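Field: COMPLEX_INPUT
Field: COMPONENT_COUNT = two
Field: RESIDUE_TOTAL = 573
Field: MODE = joint
Values follow.
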Amino acid sequence: MPEPAPALKRQSMTTRLLLAPGILWMALFLVLPILMIVYVSFWTQTTFNISPTPTLASWKAFFGSDTYTGALWTTLRLWLIILASTFIVGYPTALFVGLLVKSKTVSTVLLVICVIPFWTSFLIRVLAWRPMLGKEGAINIVLMKLHIISQPIEVLLFTELSVVIGMTQIYCVFMVGPIAFMLARIDRNIIEAARDLGAGFGRIFWKIIFPLSLPGVVVGAIFVSVMVLGEFATSAALSGRKVNLLGNIIVTQVGSLKWAMASVVGVILTVVMGIVIAGFLRIVDLKREL
Amino acid sequence: MESRILKPVLALYVALFLLFLYGPFVVLTILSFQQGPEGGPQFPIIEWSTYWYRQLFGLTPPSRIAPLPFGDALIRSLVLALMTMVVSTVLGVMSAQAFRRRFRGASLVFYLIVLGMMVPGVLTGLGTSLLANNIIGIERHWYTTAFATHVAYTYPFAFLVMLAILNRFDDSVEEASWSLGVDPWTTFRKVTFPLIFPGVLSAMLFAFTLSLDEFPRTLFASGRDQTLPLAIYGTFAVEIHPNIFAFGVLTTLFSFALLSVYGILMALSVRRARRLAMQEDIA
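Field: COMPLEX_OUTPUT
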């Protein structure tokens, strides 16, 4: 093999030096912690402590308990529901912002308006749903004033429905953004051409617009999945502890110093996460879409 | 054409969407003007007042409801966000700069960095705590363990922003500088950095706001002293009073101020770039 030219050698040296701090940080504070969770999930749990004696006890306890496996199913169910609801709520908005609005300024302004609620603290945004959904909350008051209902709807707060409503509102913008971005990139001439050839809007939508926006949908789905799968605050605040996600189990286990069990749930969450993200990344190459 | 029907229908839909998006915040703002200290965090408004705002600043006589213990937590959060912002922006610029050249394992490194924004915070928080407790044997603090997890979260955002900026960067200006004999570091400082500065600002803004509001990572990793989101979470367990709503309104206004500063800096740097370009044209 020929020796690389000195200039090239210096370049690769620079590249290495530039990358080293970042790689080191991620290895130490991201990869190592995750490996640590896997490791600790096989440790022995005593009342207030853990010791490195290997055991499968916590794993057996997880799969032997309906509460824990139930949390896994609740997490998966809620994840699918939120994925669907954010898509349904978000897509038409993205269609309007990204494709139908002709002026670039108007569409930027609309996107900024969508992002503004994120300037309120996440936890306070969650909390704000309580006076919205409660028995004497804003929604019930408005609906009764409009004579649409005569009795306040009580299932709105402290149920699974309230968690779904809350999470949809908090996460739908992560769907709108990427989809609108992809829609804005569609060459209008293609749509014009299809229209000239006599295609109706439905046909144009299903054959051109929707397929071209799909990478945006996938990127949005990744964002939403990442956030919903690791959630625990919204479910804790809005379900009145009725909805227990994997995240909630981790928090309660750590709270009672059951680190080994928390780690088992952590490993399961990591695996679920890995499968979901790998699945989405098979559909779309994130690095190319940038 | 269908778009004549479709457009108004979708416009109406977007209006409803924005109502859904803003509804809770509007309600929150209204309720923050609830009468105090007897008024609760629900309708109806007994009497409009600024009691809860005054209470936040300690301007009300002591009552049954204790003021929010947010002072120290707020300062901690701001310092943490600043630290996180500086480190993750520096890391982000460095890595994105490296990615302008092809190198082996680029894909692997890319996904290693992006992993930071994909792993749920509750996991990084848990793992870092386990590592600190059981392997290294150090105490957890907001400025050590929590800081490490914050950077691992915000650095990918800074990196992606910088990558997008540098992808559209015109290499010829740097080459011109090199060919004039300017060393790479000076070239970066005098040529590259001013050109990518708008991107750096965005990366800083991302890192700062993400860190300021970061909750799940901090929950386990911060140890004894609370940051602001943890203090807010603490109020979840006990009874809620409208003071938390007043606080929410104020922090939102603070965010707006921050966004305005960002907007002004951005506009200034764009204008400067344009002026420089014009000077070049004249010369």
